[in-house]
Amino acid sequence: xxxxxxxxxxxxxxxxxxxxxxxxxxxxxxxxxxxxxxxxxxxxxxxxxxxxxxxxxxxxxxxxxxxxxxxxxxxxxxxxxxxxxxxxxxxxxxxxxxxxxxxxxxxxxxxxxxxxxxxxxxxxxxxxxxxxxxxxxxxxxxxxxxxxxxxxxxxxxxxxxxxxxxxxxxxxxxxxxxxxxxxxxxxxxxxxxxxxxxxxxxxxxxxxxxxxxxxxxxxxxxxxxxxxxxxxxxxxxxxxxxxxxxxxxxxxxxxxxxxxxxxxxxxxxxx
Length: 271
Hints:
Shape: elongated
Mean pLDDT: 77
Strand order of the largest sheet: 1-2
Radius of gyration: 34 Å
Order of helices and strands: EEHHHHHHHHHHH
Helix content: 55-70%
Distance between the termini: 67 Å
Low-confidence stretches: 1-6, 257-271
Structural class: mainly alpha
Strand content: under 5%
């Protein structure tokens, strides 16, 4: 997970600063509007209106109040949207019910969807900095993030811990899946457009600065080419009967060029 100041808010295409809590931007919108319309929710989440309406119809999201979606609706929609690529929709609904507990467990003390969403955002942010996707690593992050949670019953934090661990792995799997699909799309494009791949490779190579090894190789090629030119010149003079210059009249080759004059059999010309 890349470490940058900006993160994509789970379940949206919106970025947020890591100094903010995940639901802060949504809360600001709600305060300014008194609730979001269906079209505004679609703009935030990238979902189709029919998809959101279907979730409401199936009972996975509560009915909006006067056609206005409040924090409880939007946070739940964002959570479902963030998990839906790895977990079945009906299972997400059961998972949220598992976290919140039964209705008779002091509903006013149950964790709110917006609070759960904030925990998820904070856990993903912390996990990105820790760079440890092992089961122990994820559980350690969850333990740290939810340390301030006070549930209505002793087992509430146990349920939250289990659900958070699952949700984090689902978000990571979604990210890996999308990256994999993007890489596969790129390979398919290269298979269909091999000429573009060659052009891009040439352009990329031309922009690269030669390293020390490349410079040494270029210098060696230059020395060998110079030695070959000298050899061809002398060989041509011998074939035309031109008198050979005295050793004192010749240009003395460099040590590296002299070594290069010892040509292997496959480079010699037939006399």
